[in-house]
């Protein structure tokens, strides 16, 4: 079991359910990883990244396996986190439309910042 911000038992379960609800997966709380789609696994990974309330999250292609609606929902969550928790979220992506959600965009080409 994952230690969530030094909480255990019922309190940790409540936090996990809240995080799963934030990524639209509360209804899948009792499912095994093999029972989840690729997009659902991706959203669970994001919820896990949030579990200990980090100051920074590095997300590599966080919307890669998500449909457009779920991608938008995840980006709304990113905006909320940035504002509410003062969490810095560094996102690496090929999806140009995600730039509009960023406070700052850094472009790389052939391993160099341009």
Main traits of this protein?
single chain, 114 residues, alpha+beta, Rossmann fold, two-stranded antiparallel sheet, 3 helices
Structural category: alpha+beta
The chain-level mean pLDDT equals: 84
What percent of residues adopt helix (DSSP H or I)? 25-40%
Count of all domains: 1
The helix count comes to 3
Examine the coordinates and then state which fold CATH places here, giving the name of the CATH topology. Answer: Rossmann fold
Pfam families: ABC_tran
Domain ABC transporter: 11-64
GO cellular component, one term: plasma membrane
Protein name: ABC transporter domain-containing protein
Topology:
Elements: H1 9-22, H2 38-50, E1 56-60, H3 68-84, E2 88-92, E3 108-109, E4 112-113
Parallel strand pairs: 1-2
Antiparallel strand pairs: 3-4
Helix pairs in contact: 1-2
Explained architecture:
- Pfam families: ABC_tran.
- GO terms for molecular function: ATP binding; ATP hydrolysis activity; transmembrane transporter activity.
- InterPro entries: ABC_transporter-like_ATP-bd, ABC_transpr_LolD-like, P-loop_NTPase.
- The mean pLDDT is 84.
- The radius of gyration is 15 Å and the shape is globular.
- The chain is built from three helices and four strands, in the order ααβαβββ.
- The longest helix is centred in the middle third of the chain and has 17 residues, at 68-84.
- The protein has helices spanning 9-22, 38-50, 68-84, and strands spanning 56-60, 88-92, 108-109, 112-113.
- It has a single domain (9-113), classed as Rossmann fold.
- A hairpin with a 2-residue loop joins strand 3 and strand 4 (112-113).
- A two-stranded parallel ribbon has the order 1-2. The chain has a two-stranded antiparallel sheet with strand order 3-4.
- 39% of the residues lie in helices and 12% in strands.
- It is α+β, with helices and mostly antiparallel strands and 114 residues long.
